C-alpha cells in the first residue's frame, strides 16, 4: 500500500485546466527535446503518467512510452487523448509496479517523486527504475529543491504563486520532511476551490544516494530542461542517473 495521495475523479476532471501553463508548448517542448535525446532511440516508461501531459506528446514524437499510474481517473483522462495501443498504461504505484519489456529511459517529472511520502518508498522507486532499465539506460527526475532558505524562524509556509486566479503555498515539517501544497483557485463566480497535496521533499544528495543503492550513477544535474547549469541558487533540478553497465534488472 503506497503512501501517495490518490487523485480523485474530481481532481482528474480539473487537473489539466488547473495546471494551466504547464500544458503550453513553451513548457512542454524543452521537456520533450530532452527526453527524446535521453531515450536514445529506445523505449520509455513514465512513472506517474497522470493525464498524459508529457507521455502523450512524447509518444507522438516517436518514443514508445508505457505509463504507470496509481489513479484510474487520471488514466481515464489520458485515454481521452490517445489509445491504449498507442500508449499503454498499467495501474499501480511507481515504487513496486513492473511492466514487461526493456527500456532505455524511465522518467518522473513535475515533483512527483515526492508523492511517495516515505524515504523507504522513494528508495524502492529508484530500485524499480533500475529494474526496468537496460545497462546504460537513464532515470530522469524533475523536482524542486526544498526552499527552506526562505523560512525565517517560526515560519512554516512559503508561497509559490500569487495571482488573480491562483494562490498557492507550501508548508513544511522540517523534522519529518513532510510537506503540503495548498491551492486556492478562483472560480468564475468569484468563489474559490481549495485543494491540497501532500509530499515528501528530498535533497539532491539524498537522491544521489538512492540512485547509488539502485546501481545508478549521476550523469547530469541541471536547473531546468533548457540546460541552465545547476547552482547553489537553483530552485529546481533536472537530474539524470545512468544504470551501471553490466548490471541486470
Beta-strand share of residues = 25-35%
Spatial extent as radius of gyration = 18 Å
Main beta sheet: strand number and arrangement? 7 strands, mixed
What does the average pLDDT come to? 93
What is the β-strand count? 11
Helix content: 25-40%
Spatially, the strands of the biggest sheet line up as 3-2-1-4-5-11-10
What is the global morphology?
A: globular
Order of helices and strands: HHEHEHEEHEEEEEHEE
The chain-level structural class is alpha/beta
How are the elements arranged and paired?
Blueprint: H1 9-19, H2 25-39, E1 44-47, H3 55-60, E2 65-69, H4 72-79, E3 89-91, E4 103-108, H5 119-132, E5 133-144, E6 157-162, E7 166-173, E8 178-186, E9 192-200, H6 204-213, E10 216-222, E11 236-243
Parallel strand pairs: 1-2, 1-4, 2-3, 4-5
Antiparallel strand pairs: 5-11, 6-7, 7-8, 8-9, 10-11
Helix pairs in contact: 1-4
Would you give an account of this structure?
- With 249 residues, the chain is an alpha/beta fold.
- The protein is 26% helix and 31% strand.
- The chain is built from six helices and eleven strands.
- It has helices spanning 9-19, 25-39, 55-60, 72-79, 119-132, 204-213; strands at 44-47, 65-69, 89-91, 103-108, 133-144, 157-162, 166-173, 178-186, 192-200, 216-222, 236-243.
- The strands form two sheets. It has a seven-stranded mixed sheet, with helices on both faces.
- α4 links the parallel β2 and β3 (89-91).
- α1 (9-19) packs across α4 (72-79).
- It is globular and about 50 Å long.
- The two termini are 23 Å apart.
- The mean pLDDT is 93.
Amino acid at each position: 500500500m503506497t503512501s501517495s495521495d490518490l487523485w480523485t475523479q474530481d481532481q482528474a476532471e480539473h487537473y489539466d485546466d488547473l495546471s494551466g501553463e504547464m500544458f503550453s508548448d513553451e513548457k512542454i517542448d524543452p521537456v520533450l527535446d530532452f527526453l527524446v535525446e535521453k531515450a536514445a532511440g529506445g523505449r520509455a516508461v513514465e512513472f506517474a503518467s497522470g493525464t498524459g501531459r508529457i507521455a502523450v506528446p512524447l509518444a507522438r514524437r516517436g518514443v514508445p512510452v508505457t505509463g504507470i499510474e496509481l489513479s484510474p481517473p487520471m488514466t481515464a483522462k489520458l485515454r481521452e487523448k490517445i489509445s491504449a495501443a498507442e500508449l499503454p498504461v498499467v495501474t499501480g504505484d511507481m515504487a513496486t509496479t513492473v511492466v514487461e519489456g526493456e527500456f532505455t529511459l524511465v522518467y518522473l517529472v513535475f515533483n512527483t517523486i515526492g508523492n511517495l511520502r516515505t524515504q523507504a518508498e522513494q528508495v524502492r522507486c529508484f530500485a524499480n527504475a533500475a529494474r526496468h532499465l537496460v545497462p546504460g539506460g537513464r532515470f530522469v527526475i524533475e523536482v524542486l529543491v526544498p526552499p527552506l532558505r526562505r523560512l525565517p524562524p517560526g515560519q512554516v509556509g512559503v508561497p509559490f504563486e500569487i495571482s488573480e486566479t491562483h494562490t498557492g503555498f507550501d508548508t513544511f515539517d522540517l523534522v519529518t520532511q513532510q510537506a503540503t501544497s495548498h491551492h486556492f483557485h478562483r472560480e468564475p463566480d468569484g468563489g474559490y476551490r481549495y485543494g491540497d497535496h501532500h509530499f515528501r521533499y528530498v535533497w539532491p544528495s539524498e537522491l544521489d544516494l538512492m540512485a547509488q543503492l539502485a546501481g545508478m550513477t549521476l550523469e547530469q544535474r541541471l536547473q531546468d530542461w533548457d540546460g541552465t547549469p545547476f547552482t547553489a541558487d537553483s530552485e529546481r533540478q533536472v537530474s539524470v542517473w545512468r544504470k551501471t553497465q553490466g548490471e541486470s534488472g
